[in-house]
Amino acid sequence: MKWIVVSIVAFIVLYTVVNVVYRKPAPPHRPYEELVKRTTAARLQAGGWYQLAADTRRPADPPAGGGATLGRGARGLGPGLAECYVEPPALFATIDHATAPAMVARGETYTVRFTGSVPDQQLQLGDVVVHQHGGEIVLLPLTEHLPGHHLLSRWPDAQYALSFPTATLAPGRYQVRLVARGPALTWELEVK
Q1: Would you list the domain boundaries of the chain?
Q2: Judging by DSSP bridges, how do beta strands 103-104 and 123-133 pair with one another?
Q3: pLDDT band for position 59 (50/70/90)?
Q4: pTM assigned to the model
Q5: Cβ(141)–Cβ(178) below 8 Å
Q6: What CA–CA distances, in Å, run from 150 to 64, 121, 144, 146, 154?
Q7: For the residues 33-42, what does the mean pLDDT come to?
Q8: Is the dihedral of CA 164, 168, 170, 171 positive or negative?
Q9: Burial (0-12, 13-18, 19+ Cβ within 10 Å), 128
Q10: Are 80 and 179 spatial neighbours (Cβ–Cβ below 8 Å)?
Q11: For residue 62, is pLDDT > 60?
Q12: What is the Cα–Cα distance from 83 to 176, expressed in whole angstroms?
């Protein structure tokens, strides 16, 4: 019996030493999440959707008079884009207000300022993904959990600014949708 206890203790000590010395410092590999991202990217590409690089800032400057006439659209991602996502993205609860120019010169940076509400106070704006397909541009503000277990966002709604380059967009008219779980905000953009 004594030798069994000694061998168990020796194994635990050896395992702990090997684990601490050879542990990988990077975050663990998550094969399911990687598979979901790859499958979604493949579906978007097959569906003709292109992703534009975007820059998101918070807190945003208060919106100055925009120019684009805003309207309300359908809830969620809409047909065509929803089928491309393996798992539905974590969207804002609502988009309350937006300010955006109605016209931009090709090659300039297009900036949209908006106010949105998160569905849970333990969430914050993570990133905004911009998809383009033909004459349609879809802006997806995605949420992420705040670090820590007991942190809460200060307010459920806040102001944000989103910018993306227009160099890859052909001149013409585009229908822009800023989507959320609630009704989307829509407007027309002309690229000259």
Answers
A1: 49-191
A2: unpaired
A3: low
A4: 0.76
A5: yes
A6: 35, 10, 15, 9, 12
A7: 89
A8: positive
A9: buried
A10: no
A11: no
A12: 19
